[in-house]
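so my prof wants the structure for this chain in the tokens format not the other one, which i didnt know existed until like an hour ago. anyway here's the sequence
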Amino acid sequence: MKKQIFGAAGLLTAGLLAGSAFSITAASAADSTTTSTTDSTSTTPGDKPDMFSATSIREGEANVDATTEAKLTEAALAEVADATVIRAETDSDGAAYEVHLKNADGSVVTVKFDENFALTETIEGFGPAGDHAGDHAGGQTWH
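here's what i got, hopefully its the right format
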């Protein structure tokens, strides 16, 4: 009988040790972390410029200074109420300046001005068809 008790106790001890070792190994494996890196470079489809950038994206156009921007923004928002200004810049299509705006419905409007800040034209989209990398071009004049 003593032999059976010692045998059972030995098996129980061996089982506990094996179980503990297995538990420690599993816990250790669960705690280890794997770090991976991914390329987070973002590009627009077809490597086109970001049309909604606050900076000028078209050759021949440039962002305007803060004073000019304030005048243009005020005049553009008076023409297209409740819109959000995307950017105010010089224009390479004949006007002195243009302000690109985004309406609440997601549509884009471009308001053009002469050198005296007088409104000359309001266009749906970013400009004449085919302009600005060919995206979101409008061309329908309002004014």
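also thought this was worth mentioning. The CA atoms of residues 122 and 133 lie 20 Å apart.
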